[in-house]
Each structure stands twice: as C-alpha cells, then as structure tokens.
Amino acid sequence: MNVPEAKLLKEAASVASSLLPEKSSSMVFQKVIAFLKRKNERYIPRKAKVLSKEQVERFLLDAPDDLWLLAKIVTIFGIFGCCRCDELLSLAMNDVEDMGKYEPELYTGHCFRRTGATMVVDAGGDILSLKHAGGWKSSEIAMSYVDDSINNKI
User: Fold this and answer.
1) Which tops the pLDDT comparison, 20 or 79?
2) Please, what is the end-to-end C-alpha distance for the chain in angstroms?
3) What angle do CA 111, 94, 113 make, to 5 degrees?
4) Closest CA relative to residue 109, chosen from 64, 35, 48
5) What is the CA radius of gyration of the chain?
6) Where does the sequence pass through the membrane (predicted)?
7) Partner of 109 at 20 to 30 A CA spacing, among 26, 49, 103, 126?
8) In Å, what is the CA distance from 26 to each residue of 12, 13, 19, 33, 37?
9) What pLDDT is recorded for position 60?
10) Residue 120 · residue 129 · CB < 8 Å
C-alpha cells in the first residue's frame, strides 16, 4: 500500500470512528477499503502527447519569428532540456549562456519533457542516458518513455 493510500485509509478510519458507533464503524471501514481498492484497479493515468520530430522542425522553421520567437525558444529549451513546466518557469537569464549562434490545446507543458525523452531514445540513447537526461532515479519511470519511442513502435 503506498503512502497516499495509507494516509487516506487512516483519515477514513478516523472519520468513520467519530461518526458511527464502535461496532458499526469497523464494518463501514471494511467497505470503504474494498471500495477504494476497486476504484484503484481501474485507474489509468493519462500521458501527455508527444510531438514528432517533423512537427518540431516544421514549427521551428516555418513559424514567423516576429510572432512565435518566444514560443520557439521555450520549445527548444523544453524539448532539448527535457524540462518540466516548473523548470521552464524557474529559468533565469544567468542560466543561459550566449554561445553566438498543431493544435496547442492538445499539448500540455509536459509534452516538452516527454518529447525530449522520446528523442533521446529515438537517437539511440540507452536507458542510462535517458535517466541522466531526464533526471530520473527509477528505471521504471524512464522505461515508460521508451515505450513511447516511435522507433520502438515499428
């Protein structure tokens, strides 16, 4: 049982014991546990969409800079940095070194991170390089991004 589930069950037990007589609270609590377990079995997390390499290239090359320059910069940082939304928001000018040189409602901020991770795998990166690029400690989490790799679907 994971921590949030254990905390939820503890809170449910507390509420049940405060509202019901001693004998009936244990029966209600058992029903609550059974209900939560049934609901948890059907839960399927949603995954953010992944932009294709062609979509990224088309946007970066075809979108006019006078209208889309900021979005292009955010796209480059988001994808090639495998950034989370909060990491993009916390970027400061000191984090950037000057080296000299669709349908938007379908794509969340997390799609940059997923696209970047997918591109690492598509370019031949192994699980270790993917974990390093994405900052993951768990191989299981990193492997979920490998499953989305276009080359692995072929």
Assistant:
1) 79
2) 36
3) 10
4) 48
5) 22
6) none
7) 126
8) 11, 8, 12, 11, 17
9) 93
10) yes
Q: Give me the residue label for tokens 């990224």.
A: 56
Per the structure block, which two tokens stand in for 125?
Answer: 């990166």
Question: Tokens 């000057």 correspond to what residue?
Answer: 98
Q: How many helices (H) and strands (E) does the chain have?
A: 9, 0
| Residue whose pair of structure tokens reads 């994971």 in the numeric block | 2
Cα(131)–Cα(125) distance, integer angstroms: 10
Average pLDDT, the chain: 77
Residue ranges covered by each domain of the chain: 3-41, 53-153
CB 145 within 8 A of CB 116: no
Residue 81, phi-psi category: left (phi > 0), alpha (psi -120 to 50), beta (remainder): alpha
Distance, CA of 39 to CA of 58 (rounded, Å): 42
Question: How much is the pTM?
Answer: 0.43
Distance of alpha carbon 116 from alpha carbon 125, whole angstroms: 12
85, 109 contact by CB (below 8 A): yes
Q: How far apart are CA 121 and CA 150, in angstroms?
A: 9
| Residue carrying structure tokens 């591109």 | 119
Say if residues 78 and 117 touch (Cβ distance below 8 Å). Answer: no
pLDDT, residue 62, reads 95
